[in-house]
Specification:
The complex is a heterodimer.
Chain A lengths: L1 H17 L2 H8 L3 H14 L7 H22 L3 H42 L4 H18 L2 H14 L1 H9 L4 H9 L7 H14 L2 H13 L7 H29 L10 H7 L7 H32 L13 H19 L5 H27 L2 H4 L6 H27 L3
Helix pairs in contact in A: 1-12, 2-7, 2-11, 2-12, 3-10, 3-12, 4-11, 4-12, 4-16, 5-6, 5-11, 5-13, 5-14, 5-15, 5-16, 6-14, 6-15, 7-14, 8-12, 8-14, 10-18, 11-14, 13-14, 14-15, 16-18
Chain B lengths: L4 E3 H4 L3 E3 L5 E10 L8 E8 L2 E6 L3 E5 L2 E4 L5 E2 L7 E2 H5 L3 E4 L4 E4 L2 E8 L6 E9 L2 H9 L5 H8 L6 E3 L3 E3 L4 H6 L12 H10 L2 H10 L2 H9 L3 H10 L2 H10 L2 H9 L3 H10 L2 H11 L6 H4 L6 E3 L4 H10 L1 H4 L4 E5 L5 E6 L12 H4 L7 E2 L4 H11 L3 E5 L5 E6 H10 L1
Parallel strand pairs in B: 2-7, 16-17, 19-20
Antiparallel strand pairs in B: 1-12, 2-3, 3-4, 3-9, 4-5, 5-8, 6-7, 10-11, 10-15, 12-13, 13-14, 17-18, 20-21
Classes of the chains: A mainly alpha, B alpha+beta.
Chain lengths: ~425, ~425
């Protein structure tokens, strides 16, 4: 018994040692775009879309697990591997798409900051520049370990959504039933909603970030078991948050399902239920937006510089890694700048980001499956055949869904 | 100038003509055979129809941007050859180590020099530089889409970023392939161990282990000491116990103990087994101490002399400890019963006469600590008393080891 106990203790210790990349990536997944989509789902369709969360969790686990495994076994980032195995032109194409898609994502994050602080009465002319400076400093001036601690703390703040969900006193019985009871309707609005939920959950940049973070953390195949467990816990965690966002909005709009146009509307709708629900919901949105605004530009700059062979790393000085720092800074400045501009077509930009993500994701996912099945790279850690079936199935469904979303977005802009 | 060199991107796709100036195909790749010549392109792989032909360097008469003209038509079909380092397949887009710039870089293109060999009527290509950065990226992106002359014009405003071929170290994890391609990691040994440590931290685990397996164990030990402890452990774990033992032996006992303490007990035992007897006992002793105490920080290598020794006698003794002296700043004095009674900064030895006793040179108040003192307290002592070295004593007051300022710096850096 003592031995099992000590072995258990050892696993727990290793788990905390590897904790970080998987959990953070999964959590950032609920960024401002994600929160808006889930709020929309709950406000318009109440509990009906809840059943999709479980399959989405599986898809998320499958994709993220592959990335973290590639990172642990090869010790290289995803853009490194794409460059080495698919050449410079393909890498260049992917990096261009990644920069554009992520830039529009960053705009969405800063827009989220503006919305969340707007609910507390802070003008975006003040909130957005402060958030931008904060995002820039956290990543550039901190080292990996301290930044990771800040990010892990940010993960904890997501609990705000759980509390907000409970305060609204939704119909838990219905929530439970619809979580496991698939409900399909041939309503174009409903189907679009389901697709959007998948589309916002699995974004191309996450794969780059996760794999890079696993490498940076120095996770090896030896402690991979714990790392995989971390990915699974993180994916469930993020979907639990999603569940509470949907449930909170479903509770708030129980009598009059509404098409909401931004997350602020959802936050305000919680007001009649508890004076704390609205601030909690906005605090969650603020946290998620700043969190993603820190990670996205940094992850983009790393991916591009690694793929194209430029010096990169926050440990280097500006002079040593100019492309890295310029790209990183420009992404933040442009991403935050356009949000402050009056009359900037932000909604169109966010739709564009969805289209770009949709174009990029098939490439990334197919590359991932090809890479992870290369014996020369992965040795005994390639996908087992049964896992490959699940992986391909996930890829095909996710790509199908994303392409459908892209198609819908292009056909009915706005 | 522009005429006597060729980029690899330009060589690719260049037409190859036979003696009657009939085009037989286009260049698909080129290869060095490093065992024969370190930089001369030995084979040109020419795509003709669906198969590839192999052209040897001595079958070529001229090479230019317009094409390659052969002097001999006895060509053989290409078959995969393990002694070839193919530029397109094995070098382009891969990581290599830039010895001079002390960093890991990714190869984008290769610059080749067109040479006329003395006394021969033929032209050959020599690898002179590996190109990285924006200029070579532009070439790669436009290659085949825009005529080479235009590309040369377009790239001219961008400043070049290249590494001389002599300063390139190819990273190869497979030992057999290293042998066949004549890849030695000898050049890495010329670098400062701290730079080498930074470089290996950037490589993949396999490449990292390959480097530690091949370089001189003394250099390996110094570089390993500079690496993050967690990575140290994963490297030592991956190496054969004998190789790991050779490296650990060369490390100073405190650093060896630090590295080993991160490993599983099983691996540590295996490595200790393979080590020579002398360092083992010291390392084993140090392993007993908790990492977060003075015992875990200290080094057992120190010079201790009886406090009544005269300066002249001391100098004789010190000359006998030449190796140790290099990293020593302070001597320790022992009195009755082996207790530490004082410390003498080396500099004070220069100012006294030969018959002065060492105890007269000792600093006024001896600052020491015990093996179980907490790490934070130790760093406090260094800060408060501006120490270079702090003696650590056991229960009997005898010297157990010494903590030096560099140990404290690494503790602080890690915090």
């Amino acid at each position: 018994v003592v031995e099992t106990l000590s072995r258990f203790k050892k696993h727990i210790l290793i788990f905390f040692a590897v904790l970080g990349p998987g959990f953070i990536t999964a959590m950032v997944d609920n960024d401002s775009g994600g929160i808006y989509t889930y709020s929309q789902a709950g406000a318009r369709w109440l509990y009906l879309p809840l059943w999709t969360l479980l399959p989405i969790t599986v898809a998320l686990i499958v994709t993220q697990e592959m990335c973290s495994r590639m990172g642990a076994v090869t010790g290289k980032g995803l853009s490194d591997l794409i460059r080495e195995e698919f050449g410079l032109r393909m890498t260049f194409l992917i990096m261009i798409l990644l920069v554009l898609a992520n830039l529009t994502n960053i705009m969405a994050e800063f827009a989220g900051v503006a919305t969340a602080l707007g609910l507390f009465g802070v003008s975006k002319v003040i909130s957005v520049p402060i958030a931008a400076v904060l995002a820039w400093f956290i990543a550039v001036k901190g080292n990996y370990r301290s930044v990771e601690k800040i990010f892990l703390f940010a993960c904890v703040i997501y609990v705000a959504y759980i509390i907000a969900g409970i305060l609204v006193k939704p119909d838990w019985k219905q929530a439970m039933i619809y979580s496991v009871k698939p409900r399909l309707m041939l309503d174009s609005g409903y189907i679009t909603m389901l697709i959007a939920m998948v589309g916002t959950t699995i974004a191309p940049w996450m794969q780059f970030y996760l794999q890079a973070a696993v490498v940076e953390k120095g996770i090896t195949p030896k402690d991979y078991k714990e790392s995989r467990f971390e990915v699974i816990v993180g994916c469930f965690g993020t979907q639990i948050i999603a569940f509470f966002i949907i449930v909170a909005c479903a509770g708030a709009y129980r009598d009059h399902p509404t098409d909401i146009t931004d997350a602020a509307q959802a936050a305000l709708a919680l007001k009649p239920f508890s004076q704390w629900a609205t601030p909690l919901f906005s605090a969650g949105l603020l946290n998620a937006s700043i969190f993603a605004a820190c990670i996205l530009p940094l992850s983009t700059a790393y991916s591009v510089c690694e793929g194209m062979g430029f010096e990169s790393g926050v440990g280097k000085r500006w002079r040593e890694a100019p492309v890295f720092y310029w790209l990183y800074t420009l992404l933040i400045v442009v991403g935050a700048g356009v949000v402050i501009l009056p009359n900037f077509p932000l909604v169109q930009m966010i739709l564009l980001s969805q289209v770009l993500n949709g174009m990029l994701l098939p490439f990334i996912m197919i590359f991932m499956i090809i890479l992870i099945n290369r014996k020369s790279l992965m040795k005994e850690w390639t996908n087992p055949p049964s896992y490959n079936i699940v992986a391909w199935l996930t890829v095909v469904i996710v790509i199908g869904m994303t392409l459908a979303l892209t198609g819908i977005t292009i056909r009915n802009p706005g | 100038m522009a005429e006597n060199f060729l980029y690899f991107t330009e060589l690719l796709g260049l037409p190859v003509y036979d003696l009657k100036r009939r085009r037989i195909g286009r260049v698909r790749d080129a290869a060095l055979v490093p065992l024969i010549h370190p930089s001369r392109i030995d084979r040109y792989l020419v795509g003709a129809g669906s198969s590839w032909l192999s052209v040897r360097f001595d079958q070529i008469s001229t090479i230019s941007l317009h094409g390659i003209e052969l002097s001999n038509e006895k060509l053989y079909p290409y078959h995969s050859d393990e002694y070839m380092l193919r530029i397109q397949r094995d070098l382009l887009d891969q990581q290599i180590i830039d010895i001079n710039g002390r960093k890991v870089v990714r190869v984008t293109d290769v610059s080749l020099q067109i040479k006329r060999e003395e006394g021969e009527e033929r032209q050959t290509l020599d690898v002179i530089e590996v190109d990285v950065g924006a200029r070579s990226i532009l070439r790669r992106l436009l290659q085949g889409a825009v005529p080479p002359r235009w590309i040369r014009l377009l790239q001219s405003p961008i400043s070049p970023n290249s590494i001389r071929w002599d300063f390139c170290n190819i990273v190869e994890a497979d030992p057999l392939r290293r042998l066949r391609l004549n890849i030695s990691n000898e050049k890495l040994e010329q670098m400062h161990p701290a730079d080498l440590a930074d470089i290996v931290e950037e490589l993949s685990p396999d490449d990292r282990e390959a480097i530690f397996e091949t370089i001189d164990s003394e250099v390996a030990a110094e570089a390993l000491s500079e690496i993050d402890p967690k990575m140290q452990a994963s490297i030592l774990e991956a190496l054969e116990p004998e190789v790991a033992a050779d490296i650990v032996e060369e490390m100073s006992p405190d650093q060896a103990a630090d590295a080993l303490s991160e490993l599983t007990d099983e691996t540590t035992a295996e490595i200790l087994e393979e080590m020579e007897t002398e360092p083992v006992s010291e390392v084993k002793e140090l392993l007993e101490f908790d990492e977060d105490t003075a015992g875990g920080m200290m080094n057992t290598e120190a010079i201790v002399l009886p406090d009544e020794t005269t300066l002249a006698e001391a100098m004789v003794q010190l000359r006998a400890h030449e190796g140790l002296l290099e990293s020593t700043h302070v001597l320790f004095l022992s009195g009755a019963g082996g207790r530490v009674t004082g410390s003498v900064p080396l500099a004070r030895l220069f100012l006294a006469d030969g018959d002065t006793q060492l105890k007269e040179l000792a600093v006024e108040r001896l600052i020491s600590t015990t093996v179980d003192e907490k790490k934070d307290r130790v760093t406090e002592l260094f800060d408060k008393y501006n120490l270079l070295a702090l003696p650590v004593v056991d229960e009997e007051g005898a010297l157990a080891g010494v903590i030096t300022a560099d140990d404290v710096i690494s503790v602080l850096r890690r915090a």
